[in-house]
Amino acid sequence: GRHQRRRPVRRPVRALHTSDWHVGKRIGRYDRLDEYREVITEVVAIAEGEDVDLVLHSGDLFDRPVPPIDALNVALSGLVELSDEGRRPVVVIAGNHDSAGVFEALAPFLRGHNIHLVGEIKRPDNGGVLEIDTPAGPAVVSCFPFLREGRAFHVWDAVEDHYKQYADRLQAISEAYSTHAERLAGRDAVQFLVAHFLVGGAKVHGHGAARGERLLHMGEADAATSEAIPPGPQYVALGHIHAPQPVPGAKVPAEYAGSLVELDVGAAGEQKRVVIVDVEPGIPAAVRSVELRGGRRLVRARGEWGDLLVQDDVHDSYLDLTVETAGPDPGLVDRAREEFDYLVNVRAEYPRAEGDTSARRGRT
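^ thats the sequence. predicted structure below, dont judge the formating
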């Protein structure tokens, strides 16, 4: 009889999405490199335990454009471990804290480890869309690093298009990547978009405090609409927002993986995670979270001094402290610093006479 040619049965490609490591960032006077080593080791263990085929990092690998040598070592060593001696491809784009130039300078040295750094925004047919072989089959990964508003007119369109708004530029670039990626993928490859930008409606505040990323590049002019998430990719790995969450309004599975650790006071109490993504050609991805346990917690505590001393979580956590007092307490900062090993901020809060604007805040 006739034999019909069939496509070989293959398992889904499993990707791990992580983001916003900010290696090198301190909190108050405390260096956190040991925590970063701990949590990155945890991410590597998850990649191995989940038998991950591909790692997607959506930007802000470092906290500063030119990272200190020890931060450089921790981050790059982590990427090399994630690559599993080159068996597992790793794709990393530059975020707004990263230097595109540093990424491009490092890229040739890491390619031999199957680590693909993309610092500059590139044309789809000239480095912007990567064809990658994974242990489970081919993947096409569109790489969209952070686009600074001053360069929003730059990309590759005609001069008459330069007047477009930032959000329009993001959408146009995403669509150009998606069109090219679909052509490359055909029926056999899975498709991802890795990008670093803010989609309007995403939560950038935590627990009533201003979050760190709200202070950087996040005016309304810097926000994209959900239209910047094209329908072509089967999963969109976004960075820039530190609070883990789905991307609001996206037509395809799209997530902010969130930061690796609680980076600032506004993030106190957030559960950190990586995202595990299973995807087959032509089918939307299945997405789930794996919680991260490493890193020192960040706690915001309020109350009277005696009650705070016996609170469970205040002695081993980074601490943002509000002490309720009857009046000014000049020795509070020194007393709190002596009592709590990881004090970040301390302030006294007390009833004040009308018109009293005296400072009540102390930092360590």
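Residues 1-6, 206-220 have pLDDT under 50 and may be disordered.
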